[in-house]
Every structure is written in structure tokens, then in C-alpha cells.
């Protein structure tokens, strides 16, 4: 019996009967690069196999993904979205997300990883702390940094690199942490802005818009001290750079990648199922193995290398500083303008 033209075409393009039998495709928005690679290689295949579906990643920054969701809010094509916590706060306030189903996995998460009213949850834990150039510190005979206020220590003059608070979450976190130690809060950033020129400012060799230039500046010895997360430090180490991470004694600043089920998505039941899977201990254990993703599920396991670099994650999590994103988002435009005119003038 001759194959039909349709089946012949499918075979010609390498589409097997197993692929043909998959009746559904589900879309997830997330950062491209290492995160996308980790999830597509080792995490999502388990869900696909168990549910006979195809999960397609729509890559982009958090702002890109949010823009897509807003543009198609009445008939969204994305079922589940990964967004940085500041952007997620905006998405929730705009009505983009629907409440997560109340399942046992939510109780396994660190309390701070559950968004208000369970409109989303943290899927990856980050902690903005201090990154430093171990080669430079050894050459100078400097002990590892311990405090956010080390950025203001005169001995680091010309060796501090600070990401712009107006364009980088790392820079914003560093500014807010120092602002707190100077007597401020998210509702009062005056101490940080007014005292910057006499504390951290004199030590800064360059303000950079994001962390892309850090590799070069670490290699040349220009960058000695900078705000960063353990995951970002791990990526730099993988490139062979001499760096280490320190959780400041006052506490690192919480930096979550959150997920939410998109409101009005084409298959809410399957989207909820995917969200619960991604929050589970098995999925987050695989994400840690594949891409050094720090879990938000307390029952998930990290790799021995991650355990060694981070130490006691539960102890670090208890000290983490949680910022007020509602206040930040309400005032961000004003802060950005002031930062650009006053700090990076």
C-alpha cells in the first residue's frame, strides 16, 4: 500500500508517529541562554513525556515577555511565564496572572517564594550579594569582603564596579542595601542618594549598564568588587575567571525568578499542571544540575559544588532581605532620573 502524500511529507521532514500523536503544545516565556538550555535539555522533557505534550520556550528578557503578554492579553499564546520578581510584581498588578492552584507543592517552597494570594511563585532563588576578584584580593593581601559597606571602604578606591541602578537589578539591589545601612528604606531613599558621593561614589571606577562588561574588567584587574549573585558568579567561574561570592553579614537581597500561569491562556488546566511541576523538588533538582539554578523548593537538592560555594542555603535564606517591589515600581521612574542625573552625572 502506498503512503498517502501527507504521511510521505511527514516522514520526509523527520516527523515520527510519536510526534504526530502529540495532540498539544504549550508555551512558556523565559530568559534565553543558560536558563533556556537548562530547562529544555533536562527539565521540560520529563513533563513532555509524562503528559504527551510539547513545551516550547518563547525566549526573551522579563521585559520582553511582559510586553508580549500585554500585547496579547485577551488571547495570550503563552501559558506560563518566568519573570524577574520586579517585573512579576508589575504583571500581577496589571491582571496578567491567575491564581495558582492550591496544591501541596506550594507548602514546600520558602515562604518568601509565594507571592501574595498565590498569584505566582518563585521558581529560582537568587541573592544579590558581593562578588569579588580573588586574584586581585590575593595580590593586594586583602581579606574577603564581609559587608555591603565594604563598597565604601577607601582601600577599594578605583576598584569598585557598580551596575547602574537605573538599568540593572543588581545595581538597584546594591543601592537599596547600602541605603538601608545609611538609615533609609524603600520608602526613603534620601540617605542613599545624599550620602553616595561621600561613601561609595569615590571608589567607583565605572558604572556599567549591566554585567556584560564584568568579564573583561575582571580579567584586566579593573573590577575588584561588584554586586552579583551566586549563579552569575558561577557562570564567570565557568569561563575561568578568578571570582568568588560573599553573602554580606547584613543579608543578601532576595532576587527571585517567579512563574505565573497566564490569565486567559488556551489551556489553563495544563498550564497549572506545568507550573506545579516546575515548582516541584524533582524539577528544581534537575534545574540545579543542568544550570546551577538555586531551588526555591526546600526539598530540592543542589549539586555538591553549589553546596560548597553557597554553604547552608537554609541559613542564607533566613537572612535574606526582601525588598518592597510595589514601592519600588511606584517610584522607579523618579529614582532612575535622579540616579542618572546625580550619581552618573
Automatic annotation (TrEMBL):
GO molecular function terms noted in the UniProt entry: thiamine binding; thiamine pyrophosphate binding
Domain of life (superkingdom): Bacteria
Keyword match Cytoplasm: no
Gene Ontology annotations for the cellular component aspect, listed alphabetically: outer membrane-bounded periplasmic space
Pfam family, one: SBP_bac_8
Gene3D superfamilies, alphabetized: Periplasmic binding protein-like II (3.40.190.10)
Keywords of the record: Plasmid, Signal
InterPro entries in the cross-refs: SBP
Keyword check for Metal-binding: no
GO biological process, one term: thiamine transport
Family annotation (CDD domains): PBP2_polyamine_RpCGA009
SUPFAM superfamilies per record: Periplasmic binding protein-like II
Region forming the signal peptide: 1-18
Entry protein name: Extracellular solute-binding protein
Organism: Caballeronia insecticola
Amino acid at each position: 500500500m502506498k503512503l498517502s502524500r501527507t504521511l510521505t511529507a511527514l516522514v520526509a521532514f523527520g516527523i515520527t508517529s510519536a510526534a504526530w500523536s502529540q495532540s498539544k503544545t504549550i508555551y512558556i516565556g523565559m530568559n534565553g541562554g543558560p536558563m533556556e538550555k537548562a530547562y529544555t535539555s533536562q527539565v521540560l522533557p520529563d513533563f513532555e513525556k509524562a503528559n504527551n505534550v510539547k513545551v516550547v520556550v518563547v525566549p526573551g528578557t522579563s521585559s520582553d515577555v511582559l510586553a508580549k503578554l500585554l500585547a496579547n492579553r485577551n488571547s495570550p499564546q503563552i501559558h506560563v511565564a518566568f519573570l524577574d520578581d520586579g517585573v512579576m510584581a508589575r504583571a500581577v498588578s496589571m491582571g496578567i496572572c491567575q491564581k495558582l492552584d492550591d496544591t501541596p507543592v506550594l507548602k514546600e517552597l520558602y515562604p518568601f517564594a509565594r507571592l501574595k494570594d498565590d498569584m505566582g511563585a518563585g521558581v529560582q532563588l537568587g541573592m544579590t550579594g558581593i562578588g569579588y576578584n580573588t586574584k586581585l584580593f590575593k595580590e593586594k593581601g586583602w581579606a574577603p569582603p564581609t559587608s555591603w559597606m565594604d563598597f565604601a571602604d577607601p582601600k577599594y578606591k578605583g576598584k569598585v564596579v557598580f551596575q547602574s541602578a537605573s538599568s540593572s537589578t543588581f545595581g538597584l539591589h546594591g543601592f537599596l542595601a547600602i541605603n538601608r545601612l545609611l538609615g533609609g528604606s524603600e520608602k526613603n531613599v534620601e540617605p542613599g542618594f545624599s550620602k553616595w558621593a561621600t561613601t561609595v561614589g569615590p571608589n567607583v571606577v565605572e558604572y556599567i549598564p549591566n554585567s556584560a562588561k564584568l568579564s573583561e574588567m575582571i580579567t584586566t584587574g579593573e573590577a575588584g568588587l561588584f554586586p552579583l549573585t551566586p549563579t552569575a558568579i558561577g557562570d564567570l567561574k565557568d569561563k575561568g575567571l578568578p571570582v568568588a561570592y560573599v553573602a554580606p553579614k547584613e543579608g543578601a537581597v532576595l532576587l527571585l525568578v517567579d512563574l505565573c500561569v497566564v490569565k486567559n491562556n488556551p489551556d489553563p488546566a495544563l498550564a497549572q499542571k506545568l507550573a506545579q511541576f516546575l515548582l516541584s523538588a524533582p524539577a528544581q533538582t534537575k534545574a540545579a544540575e543542568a544550570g546551577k539554578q538555586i531551588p526555591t523548593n526546600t526539598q530540592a537538592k543542589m549539586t555538591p559544588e553549589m553546596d560548597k560555594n553557597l554553604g547552608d542555603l537554609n541559613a542564607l535564606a533566613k537572612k535574606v532581605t526582601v525588598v518592597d517591589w510595589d514601592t519600588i515600581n511606584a517610584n522607579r521612574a523618579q529614582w532612575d532620573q535622579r540616579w542618572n542625573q546625580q550619581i552618573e552625572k
